[in-house]
Design a protein that fits this description.
Elements (H helix, E strand, L loop, with lengths): L1 H16 L5 H13 L8 H16 L3 H25 L6 H4 L1 H15 L5 H15 L4 E5 L5 E5 L4 E5 L2 H11 L1
Antiparallel strand pairs: 1-2, 2-3
């Protein structure tokens, strides 16, 4: 029930921001959401964004249409987080991205490298991604206790992820 109340509140806020029955503005918003997704993207969040946007267009400026536009916006944000992580955005502020985002990235890497890889292999791949995407900004380092250090060239260091081997073993079971 609380989830439905939250959705209704989001719809109420959304409708308050928009001129009443302004379908042009509604369509512009949907087009803006769709523009973030690269053509032909097969990522699940990208697909969900496009499907929700299509349904939002279908239902127009109604409660159902507004619900779908909120879903599209949510999926778009998830896709952008994934996309930024793959491009190295995850490595700029890891504490604000959260452990679940890192888990998604690690899971993708494990699937690509094969199930039976060591944490050093995965961390090597993470380092490669970070250095490819942000060569002047961020270095990924691993301490002896398998904790991950995120170090900027300015010397700011965070160590948000401890015991990486345990996390990797849990992720390996999902493959």
């Amino acid at each position: 029930m609380a989830e439905k109340d939250g959705l209704q509140e989001s719809i109420r806020i959304l409708t308050k921001e928009w001129p009443s029955e302004d379908t042009d503005f509604f369509n512009v918003k949907i087009t803006a959401i769709e523009s973030y997704i690269p053509p032909g993207s097969q990522h699940k969040d990208a697909i969900k964004t496009m499907e929700s946007a299509k349904l939002a267009r279908k239902y127009g400026y109604s409660d159902k249409g507004l619900m779908y536009i909120l879903e599209a916006e949510s999926a778009r944000k998830d896709f952008l987080l994934y996309d930024a992580a793959v491009k190295g955005g995850l490595f700029t502020r890891p504490l604000q991205r959260g452990i679940d985002r890192l888990s998604k990235i690690l899971l993708e890497i494990l699937k690509q490298l094969g199930k039976e890889v060591s944490s050093k292999d995965v961390l090597k791949e993470l380092r490669r991604i970070a250095e490819d995407r942000l060569p002047n900004a961020v270095i990924l380092e691993v301490d002896d206790d398998n904790s991950v250090c995120w170090k900027s060239k300015k010397g700011i260091t965070d160590t948000p992820f401890r015991h990486l081997e345990n996390r990797l073993s849990k992720l390996r079971k999902k493959i």
